Structure formats: structure tokens, C-alpha cells
């Protein structure tokens, strides 16, 4: 069922909530990109979500391409997830002692992804932060390498050249670790070395010079946080070479895990990282993160080993139930990945064609159900680095975004984000999206 393209005339309730929120919460939101700062206007406050749609506080139905920034791969309020959470709820919400849910989810994750041990935490941020501590503990080295424009959550040492939400303000220079946030001491940032994504020569050179003191190289196997960037085969080969220096390779699959395939980007691209971090889908819309790898590395984690990491709510039974139900649906219905691929490929083709017809420069990067349409004049698929992505016309994107929202299509409110398609997106949603997008490009082209 599709409601007529809403004119989204009144946003009075959202605006009233935003005013109240700004009086009690910094910027009125609990995560910065939600404030719409890079596209202008006031954010929609969401009342409920079902399938591919959000309903905002004024009752407008919005076709959702954010999917809570990735977790909602099955669509909102999926019956299997809802029932699993309700069932868990009837048995209490938190024990502070181990339970079977954690074992079942860990068994599922290890079986699907090939890691030998996994530890659950409460967010992607905790997953990457803990994986880095583990890498430092296991190698007795201090430095880490990350890539410009890759985001790994907001732990101090990772808020360096950190992409998306930070991309419009970032003024860092390659090779020098520039914190992307106030409050990150330069001494912390100095332990983070930065290289350019998709530049194997730069990575080899950095490792030749500093490799002996680098505990880990952490990377997004497909970048979502500078907009979508797809790794080149040469870059992937250089990533694997970092091991020759005794450095651990950490794939941050918080966004890509269980999205690009059941085995994530690791499976899709044939990667063999030492450690993998997860978030988002692994919790099915509840707060879960995880990190895992070979037993010999993971056995450094407390209480087995000397690297401390803990959590009052880690392995929470409701969250484990939501994650497990989500992974079970994905495993039992492999056709879902085919559907996601087909929908998103058609979306990419449709956006390209519509922009071309309207004379709007656009370059689309897509893999699986992740997509960014960069407002710039470059062939589709040719944007490979942070520097390439940063050339986009963010003002044109913002105008297009506002037209989409006015037409009832809720795109990610930043040029430097991926959108996420869900299994609840079907033919009706695709044609409606392309209708609204076509009108929005024509409006821009005028
Ligand atoms: N790593 C990647 C690749 C992410 O995309 C994100 C969040 O978007 C994170 C880590 C941080 O996860 P969280 O927001 O759950 O802390």
C-alpha cells in the first residue's frame, strides 16, 4: 500500500519537538547527523516505523532509505524480530549473568562468518575500540593505521580524519594525524597514522617506514562513511600485505556485515582479516556490537587473557533475540540478498538516467544494497577516494534532498553517507522513488 506522494505541508509537530529537544539536549539530537545541519531545515521526529516506511510526528509517511543507518535490513517492525523480542521480554530484560541467547548468537556469528571467537558489546564504537585495544595488547605495539574518510565510531583515537558527519569540517592533511573533534588530545591522535583509501602505494610506503610499530590497520572493507567507496583489488592486496610486518588487519564490518552478503564484505571480497568488528544488523535494531577473530588472538581478551573489556548490558537478552531473529531470516531466505541487489541496481540506474535527462551532474557508487549518488561530473563508479568524494556539490545535494523529503522520500541527510535499502522495499517503492527523484533533478536542473 502506497500513500499518495505527501506534500509534507505541515511539519509543526516535528518543529515543536525539535524546539523542546534543543532546550534539553545538545543540538536537539542524540547523534549529530540527525540534526540535518548539512542539508538545512529541521529534522523530522519519528513516531513509528513499519516495513519501508517511517511516520513522522505530523503523520506524514516517509519512504525510508536510512533504515536506522543500516540495522533494518529486513525493514522496520519485521514480525520475526518483533516476536523474538516480545518472547525475550516476557523473561526479563537484563540479567548481568550469561544466558543462552548470547551463546546462540555467538554460534550463529561464528558459523556464518568463520571467526573462531566473538565477544558482544553494545555499539559499533565499542567494537572497534575494543578490537584496537586487543590488537595493541596482542602485539605490544602502540600505533594504529586508519584511512582518511573512514569512520569507526567515536573512540578518541579513531576520531582522526573520520569522514561523514565530520567531513564538511575536516581540514586534516595526509600523513599527519589531525583530530576530527575537540577533546581528542594530540597525544592520542598522534598514535593514529592516516593513509589514503584506495592508495596501495601510500599504504606500502607507510608500512615500510612504520610497520614494525603498528599494532593494527583498521579499514572499512566498503566505505559507507565518505559516501560509498569501493576498494580496488590492488588496495585489498596491499591491506593483506600489512601482515608481513606483524600487524593485525581489522575489517570494520559494522556497516557491511550481514548486509553485503551473509559473510559481509569479507565474504564478498574474499578478505582474510585477523579481526572483524560488527554492529548494526547484528543487533537487528537493538544496541549490539561485536568483535571476533581467531582464537589465538581473541584469547587475549579478559577473563581468558590480559586485555580488559566489559559491559553491564553486553549480551543483553532482548538485543541478542533481535539479532538472532534477523540473522535467521537472512540465512533462511537467501533470495533476500538477490532482491536487495536487484532493487538497488535498478535504483542506481534510474537515478543516473533521471539526472542525465535533467542535465544534473551525478556519479553513482553502489555495491549490494549500499548506494551514494555524488553530485559531481564523473562517470558512475569512478569515485574512489575521500578526495574524489569531497569534490561533490553539497549545496546541490541539499536542494535535491529537500525536494525528495517534500515528496515523502527520506534520503540520508548528507552527501557523504550511504543509503540502505531493505527487504521491505518493493516495486511500488522503487517507482515512487524514481518519480520523486526525477522531479527533484528537473527542479535542480532548472
Ligand atoms: N564503524 C562503522 C563502519 C560505522 O559505519 C559506524 C557507525 O555508523 C561505527 C563503526 C560506529 O558504530 P556505532 O554508531 O554503533 O557506535
UniProtKB/TrEMBL annotation:
Q: What class of enzyme is it?
A: isomerase
Task: Mention one GO biological process in which this protein takes part, according to its record.
Answer: protoporphyrinogen IX biosynthetic process
In terms of superkingdom, the source organism counts as Bacteria
Where is it located?
A: Cytoplasm
E.C. code: 5.4.3.8
- Provide the cofactor list for this protein: pyridoxal 5'-phosphate
Named from the GO MF annotations, one term is: transaminase activity
User: What Gene Ontology cellular component terms go with this record?
Assistant: cytoplasm
Q: Which reaction does it catalyse?
A: (S)-4-amino-5-oxopentanoate = 5-aminolevulinate
The biological pathway it contributes to is:
Porphyrin-containing compound metabolism; protoporphyrin-IX biosynthesis; 5-aminolevulinate from L-glutamyl-tRNA(Glu): step 2/2
Q: Which UniProt keywords apply?
A: Cytoplasm, Isomerase, Porphyrin biosynthesis, Pyridoxal phosphate
InterPro entries, per the entry: 4pyrrol_synth_GluAld_NH2Trfase, Aminotrans_3, Aminotrans_3_PPA_site, PyrdxlP-dep_Trfase, PyrdxlP-dep_Trfase_major, PyrdxlP-dep_Trfase_small
**CDD domains recorded:** OAT_like
N6-(pyridoxal phosphate)lysine-modified residues are where?
A: 280
Principal localization reads: cytoplasm
Outline the subunit composition.
Homodimer.
Can you tell me which family this protein belongs to?
Answer: Belongs to the class-III pyridoxal-phosphate-dependent aminotransferase family. HemL subfamily.
| Name the UniProt record assigns to this protein | Glutamate-1-semialdehyde 2,1-aminomutase
> What is the species of this protein?
Deinococcus hopiensis KR-140
Write the gene name.
hemL
Amino acid at each position: 500500500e502506497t500513500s499518495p506522494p505527501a506534500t509534507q505541508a505541515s511539519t509543526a509537530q516535528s518543529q515543536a519537538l525539535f524546539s523542546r529537544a534543543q532546550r534539553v539536549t545538545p543540538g536537539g539530537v542524540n547523534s549529530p547527523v540527525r540534526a540535518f545541519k548539512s542539508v538545512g531545515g529541521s529534522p523530522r521526529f519519528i513516531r513509528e516505523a513499519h516495513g519501508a516506511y517511517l511516520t513522522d510526528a505530523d503523520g506524514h509517511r516517509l519512504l525510508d532509505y536510512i533504515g536506522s543507518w543500516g540495522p533494518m535490513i529486513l525493514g522496520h517492525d519485521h514480525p520475526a524480530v518483533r516476536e523474538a523480542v516480545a518472547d525475550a521480554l516476557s523473561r526479563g530484560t537484563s540479567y548481568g549473568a550469561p544466558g543462552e541467547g548470547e551463546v546462540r548468537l555467538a554460534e550463529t556469528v561464528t558459523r556464518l562468518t568463520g571467526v573462531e571467537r566473538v565477544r558482544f558489546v553494545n555499539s559499533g564504537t565499542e567494537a572497534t575500540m575494543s578490537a584496537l585495544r586487543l590488537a595493541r595488547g596482542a602485539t605490544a605495539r602502540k600505533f594504529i593505521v586508519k584511512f582518511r574518510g573512514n569512520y569507526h565510531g567515536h573512540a578518541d583515537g579513531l576520531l582522526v580524519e573520520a569522514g561523514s558527519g565530520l567531513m564538511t569540517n575536516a581540514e586534516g592533511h595526509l600523513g599527519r594525524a589531525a583530530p576530527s573533534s575537540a577533546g581528542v588530545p594530540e597525544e592520542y591522535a598522534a598514535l593514529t597514522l592516516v593513509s589514503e583509501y584506495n592508495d596501495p602505494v601510500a599504504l606500502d610506503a607507510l608500512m615500510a617506514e612504520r610497520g614494525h610499530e603498528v599494532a593494527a590497520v583498521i579499514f572499512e572493507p566498503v566505505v559507507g562513511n565518505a559516501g560509498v567507496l569501493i576498494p580496488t583489488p590492488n588496495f585489498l592486496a596491499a591491506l593483506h600485505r600489512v601482515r608481513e610486518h606483524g600487524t593485525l588487519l581489522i575489517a570494520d564490518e559494522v556497516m557491511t556485515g550481514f548486509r553485503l552478503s551473509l559473510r559481509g564484505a569479507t565474504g564478498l571480497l574474499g578478505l582474510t582479516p585477523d579481526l572483524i568488528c560488527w554492529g548494526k544488523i547484528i543487533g537487528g535494531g537493538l544496541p549490539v556490537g561485536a568483535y571476533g577473530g581467531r582464537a589465538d588472538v581473541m584469547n587475549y581478551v579478559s577473563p581468558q587473557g590480559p586485555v580488559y573489556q566489559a559491559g553491564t548490558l553486553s549480551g543483553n537478552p532482548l538485543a541478542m533475540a533481535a539479532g538472532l531473529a534477523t540473522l535467521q531470516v537472512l540465512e533462511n531466505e537467501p533470495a533476500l540478498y538477490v532482491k536487495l541487489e536487484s532493487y538497488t541496481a535498478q535504483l542506481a540506474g534510474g537515478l543516473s538516467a533521471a539526472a542525465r535527462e535533467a542535465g544534473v551532474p551525478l556519479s553513482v557508487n553502489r555495491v549490494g544494497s549500499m548506494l551514494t549518488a555524488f553530485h559531481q561530473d564523473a562517470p558512475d563508479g569512478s569515485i574512489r577516494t575521500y578526495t574524489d568524494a569531497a569534490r561533490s556539490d553539497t549545496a546541490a545535494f541539499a536542494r535535491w534532498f529537500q525536494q525528495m523529503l517534500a515528496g515523502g522520500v527520506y534520503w540520508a541527510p548528507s552527501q557523504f553517507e550511504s543509503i540502505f535499502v531493505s527487504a521491505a522495499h518493493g516495486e511500488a517503492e522503487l517507482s515512487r522513488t524514481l518519480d520523486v527523484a526525477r522531479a527533484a533533478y528537473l527542479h535542480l536542473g532548472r
